[in-house]
Design brief:
Layout lengths: L2 H34 L3 H31 L4 H34 L10 H20 L4 H35 L4 H31 L3
């Protein structure tokens, strides 16, 4: 494979990762909207859509392996391709968390929610910001810019951790005050947990970006 063709394949790989990241981002948004609107049909769409994300992951992995088979890449190129495989695995797991939120939404059901969910939407907005920034960071080659964005993402992840702690405290208090809502409050705890884990996966992608540029 000529170098020009190899570079074109790398560009294609990056494009496919962008598309997958956008699809995962949409899944997160839909899963949270399904919860807030108690839209069971939307939740089912998210669950069904996880198969699409899984297929994207598999296809991109196949593309990575195809590139590796057709040319023994330079060390820097090899590191980039391996990093791409790492990133799509993280994105696939994030998709699983979005699917998990949709499943929890169905379990919570259509009865009025047991508490005001103002913090969970805040968490979802911050989480999506982290995912978007981390994907952008992975595609940046400038070490200084990567380092700057990584610091921002790490701070945002700390904010998510604080919001999750706040949600846990509120929901535990709700369980004490309304024992009949313990089951559904527990499901909401898991929703917040999934958002916190999504943010952690986003931070993982940003950390891999730091390694890729040698920071």
């Amino acid at each position: 494979m000529a170098r020009v063709e190899f570079d074109q394949e790398l560009e294609r790989l990056e494009t496919e990762i962008k598309i997958m990241a956008s699809t995962v981002e949409s899944a997160i948004e839909k899963s949270i909207n399904s919860l807030l609107k108690q839209d069971m049909d939307l939740a089912k769409d998210v669950i069904k859509g996880d198969d699409v994300i899984d297929k994207m992951c598999s296809d991109i992995e196949d593309l990575c392996m195809s590139i590796l088979r057709r040319q023994a890449p330079l060390a820097s190129d090899l590191r980039e391709i391996v990093s791409c495989m790492y990133v799509i695995e993280e994105l696939e797991r994030i998709g699983d968390y979005a699917e998990g939120i949709a499943v929890l939404t169905i379990k919570i059901g259509v009865r009025p929610l047991p508490t005001d969910l103002v913090i969970i939407p805040k968490m979802s907005i911050k989480t999506i910001e982290i995912l978007r920034m981390s994907t952008d960071t992975f595609l940046i080659k400038d070490p200084k810019e990567v380092n700057s964005k990584f610091k921002t993402i790490r701070k945002q992840d700390d904010v998510i951790d604080d919001l999750n702690t706040d949600v846990r405290g509120r929901l535990i208090q709700l369980m004490k005050n309304k024992p009949h809502e313990i089951e559904r409050a527990t499901y909401l705890l898991w929703v917040a947990h999934n958002l916190e884990r999504i943010a952690d996966r986003g931070l993982n992608i940003a950390e891999r970006s730091m390694q890729l540029v040698g920071n």
